[in-house]
Amino acid sequence: LQVSTLYYHSGGAAPFEGAARTTAGGVVVTSSRDWVRRSCFDCALPLRRPARTVFLALLWTGFHCAYAQQAAYPSKTIRLIASQSPGGGVDSVARLAAARLGEAVGQTVIVDNRPGANGSLAAELTSRSPPDGYTVMLGAVGNLGVNSFFSKISYDPLTDLAPVTTAISSGNLLVVHPSVPAKSVKELIALARMRPGELAYGSSGTGGAGHLSGALFQSMAKINLLHVPYKGGAPAMLDLVAGQTQLAFASLPTAIPSVGAGKLRALAVTTAARSKILPQLQTIAEAGLPGYEAHSWYGFVVAAKTPPGIVIRLNRELVQILNKPDTNELLLRQGLEVWTSTPEAFGAYIRSEYDKWGRVIRAAGISAS
Predict the structure, then answer these.
(1) What is the chain's alpha carbon radius of gyration, rounded to the nearest angstrom?
(2) CA quadruple 89, 95, 97, 98: dihedral, nearest 10
C-alpha cells in the first residue's frame, strides 16, 4: 500500500478533477490536490492540517496492523480442538489434519480433546476464543447443527462460529453385540418389538450422528430402544463390546476394528448408498427399512469475526491436505470419505442441517432423555 499525501476535501464541487489518484483498501489518494475521501463516504468533510495528520497516522496504522496480522499468520502454535474423546472418528481426523497442517504452515499444531455435552463444550470454547485463527475446531452435526434442540447452549452455531471447510462425510454402521440373536435388520426390528425399551444403544452423545441415526430408526420402524449417551464414540464402543449395551449406530472408524475382530456383528450401513469400504454390506433401506438414510459429517470452524484472510488461508491448506491422494486413501480405509468445500458452502450446509434435523426432532418428539 503506497500513500502519498492524503487530504479530506475542504470544499468545492469536483475534488478529484485533474488529480492523479490511487485506490487501495477503499481510500482514494492524490498528490496533486488537497483531497482524500473514503470510497464509502458520499460527502466530503473539512479537516484541519494537525487533525488531518493524526487521522492519517491512525488510518495507516489500522490498515498496516490488519494486513500484517493476516500476512504473518501463522506465527505461533495453533490449537486444534477435537470435539470428541480420543479414539473416535473426530479424534482420528483431527490428529491426521494437525500433523499435516503443521508441516504445511511451519508451525506446531496441537490437538486438544474437549469431549462432553455432545461437543458443545468444545464449540463454546472455540466461540469464546480470540478471533485470530489460532484456535480451530473440528466439529460435527451435534455441536454445529442440533445441540440447541436438546439443551440450552451458550453459543449460536449459526452466528458465533465461522465455517472454514467441510472435512468428512461418512455413514454409520448398525452393529450389535454377539449376544443379540438378530442376524439382520428385519430380525432386529422384530426383536425390538418383542422387547420394547429393553435393547439399549449407545452413542457419542445426545444429538450426535449416532443418536439421530438411532432416533430416526426407531421412528421409522415404530420401535422403542433405550438411548445411552456417552462422552464420545470410543467409550460407547467399549461398553458395547463388553455387552453393557446391545447395539449402536457407530462411525466406521470406531466400529470396524471390533467388527473385524469378531467382537461385534455389522448388520447394515446408514447411508443411502453402500459404503465404498464395505460394499458387501447392505444399507438399512435395502435391508428392511425403505427410505431410511442418515450420515455423519465433520467440519472445521473458527471463532466468528476471524479475519477473512485467515479463514481463506486455513481453507486452502486444509482442503489441499485432505484431498491429497495418500490422505484420501488413508481416511477411506477407516471408512471416511473426504468432502471439502468453500467457507460459504459449508455455512449454507450447516444452516440446511440445522433446519432438516430440527424438523425431524420436533416431529419425532426426540428429547435429551
Answers:
(1) 26
(2) 150
> Rounded to whole angstroms, what are the CA distances from 82 to 116, 130, 135, 197?
11, 18, 11, 33
Q: What is the pLDDT along the chain (369 residues), one digit of tens a residue?
A: 333 333 333 343 333 333 334 334 433 333 333 333 333 333 334 445 565 565 555 555 554 454 555 678 999 999 999 998 898 789 999 999 999 999 999 999 999 999 988 899 999 999 999 999 999 999 998 899 888 888 889 999 999 999 999 999 988 999 999 999 999 999 999 999 999 999 999 998 887 889 889 988 998 999 999 999 998 888 999 999 999 999 999 988 889 999 999 999 999 999 989 988 889 999 999 999 999 989 889 999 999 999 999 999 999 999 999 999 999 999 988 778 999 999 999 999 999 989 988 887 887 677 665
Query: Angle 233-241/252-260 helices, nearest 10 degrees?
Result: 20
pTM: 0.69
Using alpha carbons, list the distances in angstroms from residue 241 to 225, 264, 270: 18, 7, 20
Question: How many CA atoms does the CB half-sphere of 358 hold within 13 Å?
Answer: 11
Amino acid at residue number 298 = Y
In whole angstroms, give the CA distance from residue 71 to residue 35. 30
CA torsion 125-129-133-134 (nearest 10°) is -80
The H-assigned helical ranges of the chain are 49-72, 89-105, 120-127, 141, 185-194, 209-221, 233-241, 252-260, 284-287, 308-322, 325-333, 343-364
Pair type for strands 247-251 and 337-338? unpaired
The DSSP H or E segment spanning 110 is strand 109-113
Residue type, 328: N
Omega within 30 of 0 (cis) for the link into 74: yes
